Amino acid sequence: DLIVHVRDITHPETVLQKATVLTVLKNLNLPSHLLDSMVEVHNKVDLIERYKPTEENALAISALHGHGLEKLREEIEKKILVATGKKILTVNINLEGPQLSWLYKEATVQNIEVMAEDGTARVKVIISNSAFGKYRTLFPN
C-alpha cells in the first residue's frame, strides 16, 4: 500500500543511492500511484547541524534519538488510510449489545475506553467505508 524510502542522509553517495532505488522501483513496473505517494525519509539528521531537507515532502528523522518519528508515523498512517480507503473513527457503544464483537470482526479496534458507570464504551477503530455503512445500518443508535 505504501513505499517508505529511508535514506542515510550523511552518506556521501546519498543522492546516487536515491537515484538507484528509484530506477529499481520503476523497473519493477509498480503502479504509478505507489511511486507518487512514496514517503521520503532522511535519517541520521542528528549528525548534520541544523539539517533541513532540500527535497519537497522529505521527512527528517533521527532514528537513534527519536527525532521526527511521531511526524513520520502520522504521515504513514495518513497515506495508508488514503491508499486503503479506510478511516479512523471513535464510536460510542453499549457494552451489553453486540457492537463490540461486530467491530472486532469487521474493523481494527485500536482502543477501548470503558465508562463502567453507564455500561458504555468509546471504541477507536480503523474501518472501511463499506463496513462503517453496515455498522450504521445494523446499529443505528
UniProtKB/TrEMBL annotation:
Domain of life: Eukaryota
Alphabetized GO MF terms: GTP binding; ribosome binding
Hflx-type G domain residues: 1-84
SUPFAM superfamilies per the UniProt record, alphabetical: P-loop containing nucleoside triphosphate hydrolases
GO cellular component: cytoplasm
Protein name, per record: GTPB6 protein
Native source organism of the sequence: Oreotrochilus melanogaster
Lineage: Eukaryota, Metazoa, Chordata, Craniata, Vertebrata
